[in-house]
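Researcher: We are triaging several targets before committing to wet-lab work. For this one, the compound of interest is zinc ion. I'm pasting the protein sequence and the ligand SMILES. What I need is the predicted three-dimensional arrangement of the protein with the ligand bound, expressed as structure tokens, so it can go straight into our comparison scripts without reformatting.
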Amino acid sequence: MENDFDVIAVSPHPDDAEIGCGGTLAQLAEEYRVGIIDLTNGEPTPFNDDPEIRIKESLEAAEILGIERILLDLPNRTLMDNINSRLKLAKVFRQTRPKIVIGMQGTPQASPDHYQSQLIFDAAIFYSRLSKWEHKFDDLPPWRIKHAFYYFTAREMLSITQPLQFIVDITKEFELKKQALLAYKSQFRAHHSYNPPIVDWIESMGLYFGSMAGIKYGEVFYGRKMLNLNLFKEFLKTENSH
Ligand SMILES: [Zn+2]
């Protein structure tokens, strides 16, 4: 269908999904329809006085990655997992009917918005598939999302307890990821003395996760369920093709 997406990443603020999984999104976008849902506009921030500037930057970043972008108008800094937030995100899931969704692995030690975004994400996946609730979603029918995963960003706690973890090789897409983040001049470029050295962070994160998988740059993903995957056959296929 015309509104259908293959993959949707959910971002508390414009730039978080790029930090966590920008390389993977760019890679998937070569073959599939990929989008980011920003839960908030991310503003205010210390050095940006105009929310429109951040929106423009986020659209530039999306263009660099080859993806689309949807902005929900949930409140920045006071983002909360509540019925309104859950329904809003679930409604977009029903509209865009993604096969795979990727949310942030937010932890309470970092930004409260990040942690809340994860709670909203989990609930919205559930609300998206609930029957007899069409009246809450402008008559949109239920949509069952088959695969949900989580991306990791700098400042969050690295989880080693999730049942499923895997690394995606983004060596080819690393430069695109870097460019997409540098599009956020109001966040990362204009005030080097104060702002976090984002390029250093994503470089070291990428190399660190890459080193775990024997590749150059990687992005890590978590899953919360066991999956029915016969990786033995995949490995043998790759081995045999060498
Ligand atoms: Zn954020």
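Researcher: Any quick observations?
Model: The two ends are 38 Å apart (CA to CA).
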